[in-house]
Amino acid sequence: MIVVKVGGSSGIDYDAVCVDLAGRWKAGERLILVHGGSGETNRVAEALGHPPKFVTSPSGYTSRFTDRQTLEIFEMVYCGKMNKGLVERLQRLGVNAVGLSGLDGRIFEGKHKDSVRSVEGGKVKVLRGDHTGTVERVNTGLIELLLGAGYLPVLTPPAASYEGVAINVDGDRAAAQLAVALRAEALLLLSNVPGLLRDFPDESSLIRDIPANDVERYLEFAQDRMKKKVLGAAEAVAGGVGRVVFGDARAGKPISAALSGAGTVVS
Ligand code: ADP
User: Fold this and answer.
1) Would the N or C end of the chain have less CB density within 10 A of its end CB?
2) What top-level class would CATH report for the domain 2-50+67-107+139-266?
3) What residue segments make up the domains of the chain, in order of their start?
4) Which residue among 38, 200, 217, 244 has the greatest number of ligand 1 atoms within 8 angstroms of its CB, and so is best to mutate?
5) ipTM for the predicted complex
6) For the purposes of burial, counting CB atoms within 10 Å of the CB of 14, is it exposed (0-12), middle (13-18) or buried (19 or more)?
């Protein structure tokens, strides 16, 4: 089993990802696609007059503050436009894809965090009404049912809280938990960069290999949201996933390239 997570930043070539995925699926490989949608969500939120608000925690992690209205916009884009756009591409390529969010069948489950600590102007503030959380459990029953019947699952946040509330979760870490739960041989985290860069944004500073027992040391090179990918990779390899690759989804055959060693390989 290979779990492919494709991000939501600008520059990602979704057609290239789907063509590559469809070819491998038809050749008999078992794959699952997980996707993001942050770039498009930001655009739609601006257009709807509810611009995104990002908060930085005291430990330096940036996340989207997700009030109820933001959650609904998030769902429109992730579960609607992005998810159906990918399912449509795959259907056109002859793959019987089924798009689901983590809420459906409680595929992704976790704790709802209602408040977030945010550093603003050097001070730490507590913001309430946040609909976020982290995936702690993956319920694989529905996924196995679909795979067993020949459908390719296309999954996206949000997740379900233990109380059944929709929560915005990080897609990279959700994909990592999924890969662990399915005992995947590989997790591919595809984005709009060649991999983890030692000196971002200098693309010639690509880090080629990271030893599995030393992933967290590489957090120092990752800024902003790249940190979540490094954390996800650490969780995946610690949970038994054979390898994690940070790969480039801007062109070519992104899945095949990552599987043949392009990008940053954590193993
Ligand atoms: P996606 O939505 O595609 O999953 P993110 O935007 O969450 O991707 O994370 C990828 C982004 O992380 C890159 O576009 C880049 O701007 C940023 N980044 C920060 N530090 C690094 C780094 N050291 N190497 C590569 N990218 C980095």
Assistant:
1) C
2) alpha beta
3) 2-50+67-107+139-266
4) 200
5) 0.92
6) middle
Could you tell me if 160 and 71 are in contact, meaning their C-beta atoms sit under 8 angstroms apart?
A: no
Annotated binding-site residue? 64:
yes
Asked if residues 163 and 219 have their Cβ atoms less than 8 Å apart, the reply is no
Chain segment 38-53, per-residue pLDDT in tens: 999 999 999 999 999 9
Query: Are residues 187 and 177 in contact, defined by beta-carbon separation less than 8 angstroms?
Result: no
* Residue 181 vs residues 95, 142, 166, 248: alpha-carbon distances, Å: 24, 13, 21, 25
Among protein residues, the one with the nearest Cα to ligand 1's atom 12 is: 226
The yes-or-no verdict on residue 239 having pLDDT over 90 is yes
Rounded to whole angstroms, the Cα distance separating 155 from 135 reads 13
CA Rg value for the chain = 17
Residue 2 identity (one-letter amino acid): I
